[in-house]
Structure of Redox-sensitive transcriptional activator SoxR:
Amino acid sequence: MAQSEFLTVGQLAARCGVRTSALRFYESKGLIESMRTGGNQRRYPRSTIRLVAVIRAAQSVGLSLDEIQDAMSVIPEGRTPTKKDWSRISSRWRARLDERIQFLERLRDDLDQCIGCGCLSLQSCNLLNRGDKAAERGAGPRHLIEGKPS
Amino acid sequence: MAQSEFLTVGQLAARCGVRTSALRFYESKGLIESMRTGGNQRRYPRSTIRLVAVIRAAQSVGLSLDEIQDAMSVIPEGRTPTKKDWSRISSRWRARLDERIQFLERLRDDLDQCIGCGCLSLQSCNLLNRGDKAAERGAGPRHLIEGKPS
DNA sequence: ATGCAACTTCAAGTCCACTTGAAGTAAAGC
DNA sequence: GCTTTACTTCAAGTGGACTTGAAGTTGCAT
């Protein structure tokens, strides 16, 4: 198979590490686009590899496909995205990414403090107990809660 | 309401920032336990607040409820967890947490490199293109893929 | 020209983590 | 005692992100 300019779903799937069904699914959601051959088969420009990588990356930061599409739709209809477009999108995601990293780092620190203390069994873990007395009005150990599971 | 030794589902839910339905769900999965009143209502010891916090924390690192239960079940039947038990569990999670943080940090670095380069539109982003020529055998920009969305 | 893998659509199915609803019971305040 | 709010169970529903299956079509290699 001569490497042609365009990729079939199968090829794209292989390159991106996803199933073809996922690619069709993304397409149905408008996240990616394809051209069609005379026989109605999909053909993707190579740039779609990057696009899919970006989608997967965004997912791993905790964005839903809807949010991703939303962010991408900043790019005006049928226009090739400019540096500015992409910069707007990526810096938005960058913020989410930072939040997420910070949350996980805080969690890690808490966990480190905890590893030796037997929290689960005991009365006196400062970390998990923090605020337990103070907040009688529905608070709980917020510092471990918040940032719901992605 | 005098703060008694035990909490109702409602109280626990308020303290933990989850819905009562979630708590019943966790209980049905064996993640938490309760005593019952004469009238069959649940009563939780205060320590369950911590337990739920731990569950939520573990979720946010990307563990499924099954994995969490699995990890927790290291603790022998009906025994109060010892420091050693908890230490085993938490250091296991700590590893996952580290992986996750590392992955996100790498992603952040890539993104930073990218913000100015107009990747999406262009031919020549070293980051997203890396390996595009080399790996003709189903590779793709792995450094952005792997670590599936949590 | 033919065979077979890879493609097509569309509907339905799956998994996870819950949430909702219905019908009934318990507990706390007045 | 009565009312209201919080609880009980159980079955079914939801949403996100896909996956699977069936039935049919295309495209490349020999």
Q: What stands out?
A: Residues 1, 19, 21-22, 25, 29, 37-41, 59, 64-66 of chain A lie near DNA strand D (CB under 10 Å from a C1').
